Sequence to fold (431 residues):
Amino acid sequence: MPQVTLTVNGKTSTVDVEGRTLLVELLREKLRLTGTHVGCDTSQCGACVVHVDGESVKACTILALQANGSQVTTIEGLAKPDGTLHPMQEAFREYHALQCGFCTPGMVMSAIDLVEKHPDGMSEKEIREGLEGNLCRCTGYHNIVKAIAAAQEVMHGRAQALAPAAE
Amino acid sequence: MYDFEYHKPGSLADAVKLLSADPDARPISGGQTLLPALKHRLNKPTSVVDLSGIAELKGIKREGDKLVIGALAKHFEVATSPEVKAAIPALAQMASTIGDTQVRNRGTIGGSVANNDPAADYPSAVLGLNATVVTDKRRIAADDFFQGMFTTALEPGELLVAIEFPIPEKAGYAKMRNPASRYVMAGAFVAKTGGAVRVAINGAGPGVFRQADMEKALTANWSPDAVAGVKQPADGLNGDIHGSAEYRAHLVTVMAKRAIDAAG
Ligand SMILES: Cc1cc2nc3c(=O)[nH]c(=O)nc-3n(C[C@H](O)[C@H](O)[C@H](O)COP(=O)(O)OP(=O)(O)OC[C@H]3O[C@@H](n4cnc5c(N)ncnc54)[C@H](O)[C@@H]3O)c2cc1C
Ligand code: FES
Ligand code: FES
Fold:
């Protein structure tokens, strides 16, 4: 049986897989990291987004073997060991950017990659376009966009702390 | 998905060897088309050959009056490459609109062109810019490469290595996206290269095609007005729940006008 060795959230594991095993199956079923969700399994919804070598990818549309040797970050790997949330997680909480929360792990992982790819900051329009691969059935996206706009200021060091959401 | 064996060769020669040894082996690049197809059990390869470790398929470089893009160049790389933006901004702009962020982080130009989905973007740039498709065996002119829906001149096991784009004086692309799937309903790539005008239409028909009447009109007068009066016949175009053939025919003229506007 083929084996995959990869570093997930800083921890290196070697796992037996089949040729057809998807990265999301490895994460959820073998490593029990169930924060990464499967919404569609058809590459449409973005609930499964994780980072592979720093890039956001749909974990349902990459074979585990294609990720061999890479660094993977999932939603579980964002907060500090003492529980301090990543600025993007903090912003999602502060701006009420989730309702049921199903899409949230993928949204957060996509949002972080987007912010990192736009060091000069994104307009509201660019944030909306950047989220094209992530579907949310609850929020209507409005507060997600606001959360990302606020988080980018913290992530780029332009603000010390997250701007509080309006009452 | 049915199970298969997985190979990751380190050189083009090894990849070709694996593929020629087994007619049911399939190459995989970004997997953004192949993996969804395998989940639908549309085909059943005995093995997949991962091309991502092959240095010969990588890189984007300017070579004289040509831009050479390796098959493994991801949509994100093409969209943000300084070489592409300087030489053919319309191509970078096109790449920035393919799928979504995550698809652009994995999908490749080689996979898209080899797949030749009628609703894909890149085929119209390859045809409109009169590019040359370089494979492990030969060089194929764009006019000979695309052969209708999901069909190309590539032989089984033949690998797309790079695409050579002549650098145009002017080029522009416009598309109308399906509001749900975001794939192209009709798109037009217009280019003037060495004085010659080409107009390639994607999305509207069963495969990408050249619009000769528009090419003639634009050769005489390069302006959106010149194509405004050119009607695309609806005969042979796609008609489905998303839009009739007549609707797509109408869109072809509108997209061609916008593409010329974008080209300047
Ligand atoms: C949600 C979603 C939205 C999308 N939206 C768009 C869109 O708007 N516009 C668009 O154009 N595309 C779109 N795509 C498709 C995307 O652009 C794919 O990346 C592209 O079609 C295939 O590239 P790939 O590298 O992923 O190829 P793969 O999936 O790896 O391969 C595709 C096919 O080409 C073959 N192949 C791969 N590489 C080579 C090679 N070097 N030589 C010979 N054969 C090869 C494979 O065997 C397979 O048959 C979308 C995909 C998804 C999942
Ligand atoms: S589960 Fe991967 S995109 Fe929906
Ligand atoms: S919060 Fe429910 S799907 Fe987005």
The mean pLDDT of chain B is 97.
